[in-house]
Design brief:
There is one protein chain. This protein has 454 residues and is of the alpha+beta class. 35% of the residues lie in helices and 25% in strands. The protein folds into three domains: 100 residues, Rossmann fold; 69 residues, ATP-grasp fold, A domain (Dna Ligase, domain 1); 247 residues, D-amino Acid Aminotransferase, Chain A, domain 1 (2-Layer Sandwich), CATH 3.30.470. A hairpin with a 4-residue loop joins strand 9 and strand 10. The N and C termini lie far apart (58 Å).
Length: 454
């Protein structure tokens, strides 16, 4: 059924992106906002905005019943959840489906199938996708110690019901595992309502690569190439790029094939990201997880493929078929994304909400894009994620893209709040990053100590 009116159940830059993509397709938009976001840029561009609750997310953007009620009351045909908040909650997708709202994402049963990390590992096994050796769900420290001996140290604990670094801890011996296991259980329980953990063998000096996917729900699948998200701090991505230049051609082809083989049997619908660890020393990759939504870093895939993935999400949801063929997707050049945060890196990334006095991000550099809902005088509320923008550059190759970022960052000014702008400049100039010689733990061990010491 064609979508006439779309309910946007998110905020910030992703809400603005969805509103603009829907408008370009001729769809009306109704935007959900908390009381803290009534003056947002997305409100100004949407056809209509509805206040759904007070500022705290649990009373607004996480209130599934209020969101669905508002969507129905405003005559919407469909709902786009964006990323974060309720975007990967199977119960939310189910509620939309029960109320005859098109959910712009996977079916509820698919979200459940891939959202449980142990279940996703079982799907990967059936599809023949390589994985690091791991344990089943663990009920006690004693079980964890037994499995760690079998797997061999170092091991990493992971939460079965979620990601984002919650519940993840590396243990290099039994004393460290014994000391951290219960902490990880409590962290996972608090974040996801489920404290089930499992262990995996830890891959030293790994890179984090992922494949952007889009499915029609009937077994048809497209990939838009891979991204490299290796630069991380505490499992939170700091920089993303596409393609992953660390991969050789035949490895890249196998990676794409594995992502397709994993999602095709479950007839995956709409956008997904299949994440892998890559071991450069062995030229081997291992399945990590599936994210059943659009991701923060999707713009780098858009830049190299020359597509609008939000528009494609809406078209799949509205038309029920893929809007192009794999042969029509021809990656070109290199793209890099940096996240602009309202945080102070010199104070352990302490969030710094407040009013932006100066917001000057030059956008006249060719190939440079800013995804943000911020502007001079905008208020950064204290209730939500502190990301206030994404700066993306596309160039002929990695060096060209990095140089473009450097030129824009040199002329960027953000005042009134603390931000990570200085750190982003440091990242773009660092010789190890320029040479693409780092791994997932390098930022914590080397980059941040060097930055804070200067």
């Amino acid at each position: 059924m064609p979508i006439r009116r779309l309910f946007v159940a998110n905020r910030g830059e992703i809400a603005l992106r969805i509103v603009r993509a829907a408008r370009a397709l001729g769809m009306e938009t109704v935007l959900a906002v908390s009381q803290a976001d009534r003056g947002s840029l997305a409100v100004k561009e949407a056809d209509r905005a509805l206040v759904i609750g007070p500022p705290p997310a649990r009373l607004s953007y996480l209130n599934a019943n209020a969101l669905v009620h508002a969507a129905i009351a405003s005559g919407c045909d469909a709902l786009h959840p964006g990323y974060g908040f309720l975007s990967e909650r199977a119960e939310f997708a189910e509620l939309c489906e029960e109320q005859n709202l098109i959910f712009v994402g996977p079916r509820a049963e698919t979200i459940r199938a891939v959202g449980d990390k142990l279940g996703a590992r079982a799907l990967a096994t059936q599809a023949g996708v390589p994985m690091t050796p791991g344990s089943p769900g663990l009920k006690s420290v004693a079980e964890a110690l037994q499995w760690a001996e079998e797997l061999g140290y170092p091991v990493i604990s992971k939460a079965s019901s979620g990601g984002g670094g919650r519940g993840m801890r590396i243990a290099r011996d039994k004393d460290e595992l014994r000391r951290t296991f219960e902490q990880s259980v409590l962290e996972a329980k608090e974040a996801f309502g489920d404290g089930t953990l499992y262990l995996e063998s830890f891959v030293e000096n790994a890179r984090h690569v992922e494949v952007q996917m889009l499915g029609d729900g009937l077994g048809g699948m497209l990939h838009f190439g891979e991204r490299d998200c290796t630069l991380q701090r505490r499992y939170q991505k700091m920089m993303e790029e596409a393609p992953a230049t660390a991969l050789k051609g035949e490895v890249r082809e196998r990676l794409h094939r594995c992502a397709i083989d994993l999602l095709t049997p479950i007839k995956y619908r709409n956008a997904a990201t299949v994440e892998f660890l890559y071991d450069p020393s062995r030229e081997s990759f291992y399945f990590m997880e599936v994210n059943s939504r659009i991701q923060v870093e999707h713009p780098v895939s858009e830049m190299i493929a020359g597509v609008d993935l939000i528009s494609m999400q809406l078209r799949v949801a509205s038309e029920g078929c893929l809007p192009l063929t794999q042969e029509e997707i021809r990656p070109n050049g290199h793209a890099i994304e940096l996240r602009i945060l309202a945080e102070d890196p010199r104070r352990d990334f302490l969030p710094n909400p407040g009013r932006i006095a100066v917001w000057e991000v030059p956008q006249n550099e060719p190939g440079v894009r800013l995804d943000s809902a911020m502007h001079e005088g905008a208020m950064v509320p204290p209730y939500y994620d502190s990301m206030i923008g994404k700066l993306i550059a596309h160039g002929s190759d990695r060096t060209d893209a990095m140089n473009r970022l450097q030129r824009v960052l040199a002329r960027t000014r953000i005042e009134g709040i603390a931000s990570n702008l200085e750190l982003l400049r440091f990242i773009c100039a660092h010789p190890r990053i320029r040479a693409n010689e780092y791994h997932t733990r390098w930022a914590e061990r080397v980059l941040m100590p060097e930055y804070t010491a200067q």
